[in-house]
Amino acid sequence: MQPGLPWLRATNRRAGRRARVGCSTSCASPRWSWTPRAASCCGARRPRSCSDTRRTRRWDSSPPGSWSTTSTSISWSSCSPTSWAPDRAGPGPSPSGARTAPPGSWSSATCGCWTTRGTSTRWGCAPTSRPCTGLERDVALSTRMIAQSPIGLAVLDTELRYVSVNAALEQLNGVPAEEHLGRTVREVVPRMDVDALEAAARRVLDTGRPVVDQSTIGRTPADPDQDHAWSISLYRLENAFGTVLGVAVSIVDVTEQYQAGIEAEAARRRLALIADASGRIGTTLDLDHTAHELAEVAVPELADIAAVDLLDAVVQGRRTSLGPAESAVIRALAVQGYDSAEALEAADQPGNVARYAHDRLVTQCVRTASPVMLPQVKDEDLPRIARSPEAAELLGRAGVHSYLAVPLIARGEVLGALDLKRTRNPLPFSEDDLLLARELAARAAVQIDNARWYQSARDTALTLQRSLLPSHPTMTGGLEVASRYQPAGATSEVGGDWFDVIELDGGKTALVVGDVMGSGIPAAATMGRLRTATNTLASLDLDPARLLEHLDKITAGLEEAIATCAYAVHDPHLRQCRIANAGHLPPVRVRAGRPPELLDLPTGVPLGVGGVAFATTTVDLEPGDRLVLYTDGLVETRRDPLDDRLDTLLSLLDGPDRPLEEVCDLLLRTLHEPDNFDDVALLIARATAPD
Known about the structure:
The protein is of the alpha+beta class. The chain has three domains: 137-254, PAS domain (Beta-Lactamase); 281-457, GAF domain (Beta-Lactamase); 469-687, 4-Layer Sandwich (Phosphatase 2c, domain 1). It is 30% helix and 29% strand. It contains 17 helices and 31 strands. The protein is elongated, with a radius of gyration of 50 Å. 35% of the residues are buried.
C-alpha cells in the first residue's frame, strides 16, 4: 500500500457509495495515481465550503507527493499556493480568478477540493496551519536517510533478488541501480564470495537472527583488478502482520582496515621469523650446519627455494675482491626447497664449486655488496640467474617468477650470498621481503663467519696435531701394533690426545698414550712438546716411573699445562711389560682363553701436579696376548657411568681373535659417539715371538 492512502477518500454520490482509493486503483472515474515526493510539508483538511453535485475528491491529510488523473494532478509541498507547474505545454491558471486549468500541479501547504465536469476542472484552495504528523516526518526522514547514506543499502526479496539499492551501493558495485533490480547477488557481483553471502542471507530469512559485520573479500565491476574487503550486516524485514518480506543488507567498504590488518600481520610474522632465526642459526660452530640452518629458516616463510653460497676463497681463509669483468668462484654450502624438484635440481648441490660469469646476478650481488631483486622474472632473466643454460631451462619449468639475492657481509667482508626464489608463492618479492632477507643475512653472516674462522683454526690445530703424531711401523722387535686417532666432534676444538710407539735397544718397544688437558692449538703445542720429551727420555732406557718423574717436571715448567699419561716398555725376551701410570685410565690386557682385564696399577697423579712419586708395575705378556691403551674420549660420556662404559669395552674385546685394524675400527665405531666433545687416541699391541 502506497503512502497517502490513509488520507485520501473518494465520494461518488452518483453511485451512492464511499471508496478508499489506492495506488492505480479506480474509484469510479476519473482514475487517480499516487507519486510520493520527498518534501518537508504536509497537507491540510478540506474546507467545509468545498462541494460539488457530481463528484468530490478530498485530501484529509496527505504527506508530500502528488495525485494525478489524465487531466489533473495536485502536488503537496511547502510552497506558496500560487505555484503552478503544468504537466504539458500551455498557460497556467490565474490563482485569483481561473475557473479551469490544463493538467498540471499546484504546490501548496493547503487542502484542495474540486469537481470535474467532462474535461474541465474547477479549483478551490483554503489555507491551514496544522503541523506535520510524526508519521509524515518519519517517512520524509527515512527517504532522505536512505538516499544520502554513505553506507551501501539494499533490500532482497525472499528469493534473494534485489528489489531496492541506494546510490552508495550502486557506486560500490559499479553497477547502475536499475541493473540490480530483479537479479541475484551472483548475477550482479559474481567475483565476490557469493556462496557465503547467500548462505548467511538464507539463515537470516529462516531464523530471523541478524548477521552483523560478516567479512568478505572479492572484486566488483567498480574495481575489477583489486581485491576489496567489505563488512556486511543482514536482518530480516517483516510487515506489521509478521509476514517475511525479505532481507535488508548494509555494506561498508573496509578495504583500508583490511590492508592495515594484513600489513600488521605481515610485520608480526617478520618479527617472529627474525626471532626464530636468532634461536636457530648459529647453534654450532660447524660451517655447513650453520649455512643449512639459514636456508631452513628462509623456506617456506620467505622463499620457496633458498641457497647459501660462499666465495671459495673465503672458505679457504683468503680475502677476495672481484673486478667488473671477473667471474665468481662460489662454493654451495646449503640448499633448501619447498615442493620444487626441478628448481632444486637446477641449484648447485652442497659442496660443489661453480664458476659464475660476471653478468650473473649472484656475481653482481657479491661484487657490489648490494642486493639484487627481480620482482617479476621474465624468460630473458633466467640465464642471468642460473649457472648454465640447462639450469635456466629447469628454472623455467619450475615456474620461478621472482628472484632475490642478498649479500652475506660480516666484519666488512663479503662472504657470499643468500639466493632466494619463488615458485609456488604467487606474490613477488617486495621491499618488505628485501628488508627481512637483509636482516636474516646480516644475522646469519656473523654466525657463518664465526664458524668459518673456527673451522680454519680447528683445521690448523688438527694439521699440527696430526703432524706431531707418529707414523710408526706395524711391526717392531716383539710387537704387532695398530693405532687410531679420532678428532672430537666438529663443534669442539681439537684436543691434546697423543700416542707413540718408540723402538728401543735390545728389541724392546716403548708404548705411550697421553692426554693434555685443554683444547685447540695450545693443547696441540703442549702435546708436541711432551711427545718430544718422551722420545728423548725413552732413548735413555729409563725405568717407566723414573721417566714419568722427568715428564712431570717438564710439564710443570710449561704454562698452565696438565696431562695424563700411561707409559709401558715391552721386553720380548722376558715376555713382560713394565708399566707406570700418571693419572690415566688403566690399560686392558687380553689373553688367550681368559676374559679381558683392566690392569690393576697405581693410578698416580697427572703430569704437572708434582709432589707424588710414580710406581712401576710389571705384568706378563706372552706371545698372542694383547695390550690396549686408550684415552678417556673412547669411554667417557655425559650420560653413562664410567664403569658401565669400561664393561662395554671389555665385552667388545672378549671374543675370537681378529686383526688389530678391525679391532680398532670396532671399538671406535661402537664406543665413540658422533657428538663426543673429546678426541680419542687408541693403541693396540699384540706380542709376538722374538726373532
